[in-house]
Amino acid sequence: MTAAAGTVGAWGALLARDLRAFTRSRSQWTSSLLLPLMLLAILGVGVTEGLEPTRVRDGDYVSFLVAGMIVMTALFSSTFSSASYYQDRDSGMLKVLLVSPHPPAVILLGKSLGAITIGSAQALVVLLVAIAVPAIDVEWQYGVARSLALAVATVAGVNVLLSGLAQVLASRIRTMQGFHLVMNLVLFPLLFFSGAFFPLADLPGWLRGLALANPLTYPVDLLQLALYADGSDGYLGVGVDVAVLSTLAVALYALGMRRRPNID
C-alpha cells in the first residue's frame, strides 16, 4: 500500500467513525436541525405577519431568514461535532490515533472531515426544506443550477472555515465546557452581526464596520444573493464574498491543521 493510499484510508476511517457516532446521537442532529427550522417558521412568520418589515423584499421576512438559518445550522453542527475531539482525548483514543504511523496533521484532517461533512449535510437539509415550503419564495437570482451550485459551495466553505476555527480553539482550550463557552461567546455575536436577522444596508456606520469585519457576513451575503435577492443593490457582491470567504476558510483551516493537539 502506498503512503497516499494509507493516508486516504486513514481519512476515510476517521470520517466513517465520526459519522457513525453522529447518526447514533439523535439529540445532536435533531437539536441542531430543529432550532433553525423553528426560528424560520416562528420568527419568520411572526415578523412577516405582525411587523411587515419594509427593508426586505416584499416584506417577506421568512424568505429573508433562509440564508441566516443555513449558516446558523452550520455553526451549531460545527460546535457539536468538534466536541468529539475532547471525547477522544478524555477516553485516550486521541493518544492511540496520534501514535499511529500517520502524522498528526493527517489525523486532525481526518477528524475535521467528519465535522465538515455533518455540518454541510445538515445545512443543506435546511436549504432543501426551505425550497420545498411553498410560503418561502426562493428567487434563484442566477438561475436554479448556478444559484444552487453557489449555495452548496458556500455551505462547504463556511463549514471549512468553522472547522478550522474550532480546531484552533480546541488546541488551546483544555476542557469541553470551556470550548463550548468560548464558541458561544465568539460565534453567536458574529451570527447576529452578519446580516442573518436584519439587512445591513441601512445600519449606522459603526455597526456596518463591525459587520464588514465579521467573517460570517460574507457567506450570509452570498447565500442571500443566490437564494433571496432579486438584484445586487445593498449587497457586498459575489466577487467580494467569494474572495473573502475562500481566503478566510483556507487560512483558518490551514492554521487549525498546524496546531499541536492538546492531549493532556
Describe it.
The chain has helices spanning 3-24, 26-50, 61-91, 93-98, 104-132, 144-170, 176-192, 205-212, 217-228, 238-258. It has ten helices and no strands. Helix 1 (3-24) packs across helix 5 and helix 2 packs antiparallel against helix 3. It has one domain (3-258). It is mainly alpha-helical and 264 residues long. The longest helix has 31 residues, at 61-91. It starts with a helix and ends in a 6-residue tail after the last helix.
Notable traits:
10 helices, 264 residues, mainly alpha
Q: How much is the radius of gyration in Å?
A: 19 Å
User: What percentage of residues falls in helices of 4 or more residues?
Assistant: over 70%
Query: The biggest beta sheet, please?
Result: none
Query: What's the number of domains?
Result: 1
Oligomer: single chain
The number of strands is 0
- pLDDT average, as an integer? 78
Run of helices and strands:
HHHHHHHHHH
- Would you identify the regions where 5 or more consecutive residues have pLDDT less than 50? none
In percent, how much strand structure appears in the residues? under 5%
Q: Quickly give the structural class.
A: mainly alpha
Task: Give the helix tally.
Answer: 10
Separation of the first and last Cα atoms:
33 Å
- Principal-axis shape equals elongated
